[in-house]
Amino acid sequence: xxxxxxxxxxxxxxxxxxxxxxxxxxxxxxxxxxxxxxxxxxxxxxxxxxxxxxxxxxxxxxxxxxxxxxxxxxxxxxxxxxxxxxxxxxxxxxxxxxxxxxxxxxxxxxxxxxxxxxxxxxxxxxxxxxxxxxxxxxxxxxxxxxxxxxxxxxxxxxxxxxxxxxxxxxxxxxxxxxxxxxxxxxxxxxxxxxxxxxxxxxxxxxxxxxxxxxxxxxxxxxxxxxxxxxxxxxxxxxxxxxxxxxxxxxxxxxxxxxxxxxxxxxxxxxxxxxxxxxxxxxxxxxxxx
Length: 289
What we know:
Shape: globular
Radius of gyration: 18 Å
Strand content: 15-25%
Strand order of the largest sheet: 9-8-7-6-5-4-1-10
């Protein structure tokens, strides 16, 4: 079993104490997001968990406690974008705190186990294509010794929450040509720094630019890290373009405090604040309701 921690919220940044308590107890209780009365007990013991994928914009609260995971295999999906507080309201400063956290984490777990995510890419009058090209090159230059791969994606506005949140940003709609042109340029930059590059859940075929389809929950990477084969099916709960292997997500929607305008996982802002206030690190649930 692979644990996703989590597509629904930033566990390393805001709920790391809770997570390590659940590791110590050996299980976590997860509510079905479509039916809160339906609860699943998920075992977290080393003999039941093949691997853990952490999704984060700030792993700093977790970094000094990773020794508690010595019996587990895991890797990080670490998002670093060039956006400011106008889009990512509560993410720490990129040029100092976040880049240093990335490097520190890489020193601990190794470059194979930390994937840089540059996503989602969105365009408006401030964050132009040229802006992204310059920012991407700057981050790639800073991190190319600390990771092996970068994952990109373009903003998906099909989510209801995303449509509402980004209405204030005056985004430029991506044409297929815009996507391919920008993606090709980002790929060229990544390759120049020795980084492989893939794209997350994109309909546009970018393989001719050296951009493969992403598997963010990556069965093959886990098999490489573990040294044995897994028999994991494709995740049927994700979009058709998603290459992820099946996993169990232990997070909860409307709990992430990063305040990102493009987030699909926070769709009731009052619930986000309320859930965070009622969080109990000792609980078997991320949030008691």
